[in-house]
Amino acid sequence: LPPAELRSWLLEKSKPYAARVEFAIRVWQSVEFPYPDKYDIIVRWLGESLPKCKKEPLPMQQLKDLFALRGQPRLVGQESKSLLIRALLSLVSRDEEANVAVLELLPSLLDCELLQDALRADYELLCECYASLFRCHQQCVEQKKQLTTSSHVEFIVPVIKQLAQIALRSQKLPELRECYNARTVRPLVELLLTLESDSLVEELAELEKQLKNTYKENRNTSQPLHVTLLLLEAAVFNNRYEPLHLGGIVRAVFSKNETSLPLAAYLLMSLRKYDISLQFNVNRQRKKNQSKADCEESKELEEAENTEIKVKALSAFDFIAENLLQLARQHSKSNLKELLVLLCSALRLNPLLLDQSVYQITVWLLTAHKETAEEERLYSEYLVLLLDMFRRLSRAERFVLNLLKSLKEWLSVYQLPNPIHGEAKKRRIEGSESVKAKDADGHDYLRQIFAGASSAVAATAPSSNDAFKQLAQTWPSHSAGVAFTRLVSHLMTKPSLVIWRTLLHSFVELLQEEQQQTLPGNLDFARELHAALLCQYLSGTRLAEQLHLHQTEIEQQLQHTAQVLEQFGRRLLSQEHNRRLMNAFLECTERASGLELLLAYYWPDGHTARQRKLQLRRFLPPAEWTLIQQRVHNFGKSSCRQRLQRLELQLAESGWLLQEDQRNASCSDVLAETLGPQQLFRLTRSQKQLRLRIRADQDWEEDNLEDAECVELLTLQLIGKYAKTAKKAKGSLLSKISLEEKEQLEEAVLIGFIKDKTQRQLQLPCARLLVESLQRLPLAQLPCSIRFRLWLVIFALYRDLSCSDQEQEVVQWVLELLIDLMHFGLPLPICSYFGQLSDLLEIIPTTSAASWSFYETLFARCIRRQSAGYEPFLASCTEYLRTELAANGKLQAEQCRLLLLAIETLSSVTGVQGRKMQRQLQPLVEIYGNMVSHKFRSKKRKEAAVYKEFVDDTLAGYATYVSSCINSLARQERANEQGDKKHMVAEEEPPAGKRNKETKAEKEQDQQAIATVQPIDDNFRRICKIYIGHSLNYRNAHAIRLLNVALAHRQVLHLDPDEIEFVLSSYWRQLNADIEAGGDISCLECLEPAIRLIIGYKTNEDFLLILRHLSSQVEQMPRPETPVQHTVLRNVLTLLALFAKCSLSSVKAAVSRQTPIHLPETLCIPSLFQMLNEHFELISVSVALRLPEPKDAAYRDHALRLLEAQRNLAGNRTVSLTGETLDCLLGAMLDVDIKHLMGRATWQDFVDLYGAITENLLVLLKQHGNLMADRAAQLSALCQDLVQGIVGYRAERKQAQDLSETELDGLAELGLKLATVMATVAGTQALAVKRVAPFLLIFTIRQMVATERPTTLFEKVKVHIVSVCHELIGICDHRVGHFILRSSSEAGARLYEGLVKEHDKYHKFRGKV
Questions:
Q1: Contact 672, 688 (CB under 8 A)
Q2: Residue scoring higher pLDDT (1079 or 749)
Q3: pLDDT of residue 98
């Protein structure tokens, strides 16, 4: 194939482009095409054809394979290589081609061995390749395209490192640096900003370091500002340990150019980010032994220093502080936004940078006009940071004094800007348009750079009820006001009084008639600002807490405040109406009166009486208050009128709160709406109705749900509104009930309406919204009396809705509301008003699941708990069922279910109540027996399968029936025996006539009782076996209960051992089948009684065979990884835990079976116990080895089940533990490694496993004390783990208080469990652990004092660990004190001495009780 033909093949347009590239790759690799020109031909063809490939997709995979090929050197010309590279770059530069495939192609291009010489020869081309890669990557990130092999950050890091390696090996570094600065740095920086990863900045800094780029002003001018900022951070990072270079950077940044403000702000942010101290020098001269590389960097510094006078070296702190003042002076009006960003950064870095000039700068910013919302936000943030600085420096009073002084000086010279609102709005619009215009030049990147430092406090929205909205640009209440209030709330009494006094004196000067210190145009602003500060101070002050110590000073300040407010009010009345100042005056009056009322209400009992009378609004006479009210109503806005109304309410509240017997005093109707949720009990029913009526349109869920009567009235109000819309419907129950009466509804009246049997189809409006509102109310938590009244009203609603064309879902919701009201709290007296079951069945027929749930709740909550009227109701139930059975000979399915429900309910009652209910249970059992007898009445023997459906339907009550029949027969036999004895005694002694009559009556009663007892005959036994045969299901609790009853009376029922064995084997086969099928048996409620039943009737030998089978099954199991394997392990642990509860009796033997057991004939009971222990050890160890890692979510479940099984075995009194088994149990608890669990598992895992270990220890200590006496070492190790688990919990946390309330409460509970364990040790094993107790005590004290952040810093945890120490001190001998002191550190020794003193004083037993 000659070269010409190769070109023709490559230029063949009839074939797809990808196929031609594939052909070129095969030619490249082919040894049958030996022409050396083939490489150049293919590369040139690719360079010429790729730009023309627009219609077909790029063959990405083929190009990757081509770039991975190797070629002979110097066989491809530089021109061809450059052509190919530029062709690819031209494709990548298109926006539509920017995808993940193209992005992953570019690194293979840069790694191509064939193109390396072309890239090294042309730095412009190299930098353009990297720039194209960065731009393509940025577009993929912005379009949220995911890479196929790695994340975006992981993809770009090797690329940056590769470029750094190229710079490191470059021979012409200046040329590479120039091309990099011109082409690559901006796309790289913009990509890093888009990815938002801090680690990438360090990679950029490393690249800058290899390129030997320095921070120069001429370089910065050629780059956009956002690029310059990131390069500045990289320079700071690279020179963070070079004070000389840092000084040069600081000096260059704070130059007097237009970009110095954002650069300076980001410089301070970078210094704070990398924790760089400001103690280095800035204007230090260049050293003589500087290298040539440093000469270029310090050239400009040297020229500047030659023109200046040599002065002493200035620290960076002083240099920045001086420049901040100069920059604030220059840019406070022109570049306010950038200046605020700079000042906020300075306050975050070191607040003392503004210490010398803070008041002057703050006044400049306070009086400057903020044109945009962003400037207002930054100004609020500055004020919050400033107030936080003075709070931390404890200079609050100095701040208020100097700020007011500086502001007064400025207002006496300069006039405040007073822009018109229209112009201000126009400026805001222009500002937003300018921001949008700047977005094209990287404003989005700048916003992203400076967004991380914004404060959440300053970002809060202003309140609509703010009284000082006009001060939003000078002293915003939502940010600065809140911060000032918080500052005041943290002050001690003396500084707080100083600030109060300062504000009042300064305010008085502004209220004087001849005011010359402040310009007239600034006077209203100054007065309003002082009023705002005074209100915010009165809101935050805590002087009421120190009233008993500073009564005189506080009362003097209150008097002074009243005088200032009097002067303020009369000043307002002497001039034209001023809305701003009137708002400020009313707000000040409300706050001052509130503080005075607070002091009066919480005046300490037994303290000296007040020296001044309570004034509130009395500083002005009533006539002047009348004038103020007239002005407010005539000229004031709604907010001003609301403040005046709040003052009136405050005055009325003061008259109520300050009464002598305030708790029993009635509240006025005026205050009904304003009372808080905790005070609602003081209102009468009519006042609560008034309150709810006023707040009908508001969110009633906020305030009124904490009072039961309010919830009742709210419910009646909601239903009453619906009843008004339903008045047109004739026959509606709701329309007959008066729901708006002030008095409570009579229950008898409601019952009379509900029992009305006239029923017709109603046309009612949709009730979905009403029912949804009722569902949100806490109706089930109300008292019983209110709950029953509401139950009756909602029952009437249910009757109406069930007779209308409402949606069935809505009707069921109402029925669920009735069920909830019945379920919670005391039982409702429903049976006393609905005495007949038939009446309820007519209203609520048993046709749905919700209606059955209603009757189940009725029997479970009202009848089982013997609410009023339950006996007549049960009698009516019995009569109803007896009538239906007599009429039809059988019961319908619903009636049978009701019968079974009644029998189950009454038979489940135990104790005195159960004996009391036997009178009602017996007639129901008789009805059940008649029903069963009627079903099995045929004398012809039918197949047992015929009765399958009937048995399934009636199985729930058959166990009770059988038990009742057998017990009745036993009672009859006892009665006969007693009757025979009486008859024999009567024959020996001739009775009198009266006694003969009594004997005859007794005989008649006995004969009637004998007649009513069901005989236990063959038919009865046959029916019982049919029931047992049709209920062979271990998952059915009724079947298990029936089998228990049958086995308890197996002699009466003539049950053979083979029949019993058949049933139990069937249960065991079902259980094994479920386990083999992969089903989870751990959640079955009836599993435990089934296991007890199966194992209880097996011999000990069979039990050991089961354990041996389980042991072999566990040994064949792998460590669980899949859900199926986890389920298998969970089933094994569940069975093991249940087996451990079963009894191993010495009476049970293999002779009870006909099938021989293949065990040694010499097997005796001790060897049985030994084998049982061995099997439990094998299973426990095998399971422990197969537990997943603690970080696995299933670890806790498996570990808890293993510990539960071991706890059951230890608590089984029929099993004697061996020493090896006890060691196995202790080893399993040690393997949990509770002290290190928190780093590998969750909080809930830690709590559950810790509790399980303590419970196991308590069982072992109480029931196996003799064996535990020889295991003091294992017990000590476990106790050490438990102590360390609590004291060292999350000791690696960064802050000592970084524990949630949930964690603290949980640790306190676990500490109590540990203290209980240690008390049990002291009570049962004191002698055994006496030798190890000193070491355990030393360990506990060391954990408390040596742990970096122990949980014993919290008192609720420490109290239990101290209890542990006291128990250990009581165990220790009196001679170990010196040993403990020698073995402990100084802090531990002091703690031990304190514990010993406390123990001797409060805990040591001295022989007295």
A1: yes
A2: 1079
A3: 58
Radius of gyration over every alpha carbon of the chain, rounded to an integer in angstroms: 46
Q: pLDDT tens-digit profile of 1212-1255?
A: 888 888 889 999 999 999 998 888 887 778 889 999 999 999 99
The whole-number pLDDT of residue 1340 equals 94
Residue 1344 phi, psi dihedral angles, 5° rounding: -70, -35
Residue 602, CA distances (Å) to 375, 589, 605, 662 in order: 44, 20, 9, 13
Q: Which residues contact 621 (CB under 8 A, 6 or more apart)?
A: none
Burial of 1061 per CB tally in 10 Å (0-12, 13-18, 19+): middle
- CA distance linking residue 891 with residue 881, whole number of Å: 8
Question: Mean pLDDT across the stretch 1345-1355?
Answer: 88
Among 54, 56, 44, smallest CA distance to 85 is for 44
The structure tokens 């805590």 sit at 542
pTM: 0.65
The closest of 383, 365, 359, 366 to 460, measured between CA atoms, is 383
Question: 703 phi and psi, to 5 degrees?
Answer: -110, -30
Instruction: Name the packing angle between helices 948-988 and 1018-1029 (round to 10°).
Output: 150
Query: Among all chains, which residue has been given the structure tokens 């690799």?
Result: 29
Tell me the C-alpha distance between 513 and 825, whole Å.
Answer: 69
Task: Give pLDDT, residue 758.
Answer: 54
Residues 6+ apart with CB under 8 A from 623: none
Distance, first Cα to last Cα, the chain: 115
- Provide the residue type at 1294 as one letter: K
Among the listed residues 94, 107, 190, 101, the one whose alpha carbon sits nearest the alpha carbon of residue 146? 101
pLDDT tier at 499, thresholds 50, 70, 90: very high
H helices then E strands: how many in the chain? 64, 0
Q: Say what angle helices 100-111 and 60-67 make with each other, to 10 degrees.
A: 10
CB atoms within 10 A of CB 991: 13
Query: Residue 192 to residues 197, 202, 203: CA-CA distances in angstroms?
Result: 7, 11, 10
Asked if residue 39 lies in contact with residue 1, where contact means CB atoms within 8 angstroms, the answer is: no
**According to the per-residue pLDDT averaged within each range, which of 854-863, 1086-1095, 1177-1186, 1309-1318 is highest?**
1309-1318
* Whether the Cβ atoms of residue 391 and residue 358 lie closer than 8 Å to each other: no
Residue 1001, CA distances (Å) to 972, 977, 1004, 1008 in order? 17, 17, 5, 11
CB 499 within 8 A of CB 488: yes
- Which backbone phi and psi does 170 adopt, to 5 degrees? -70, 140
DSSP class of residue 1282? H
- Which among 1209, 1149, 1133 has a CA at the least distance from the CA of 1173? 1209
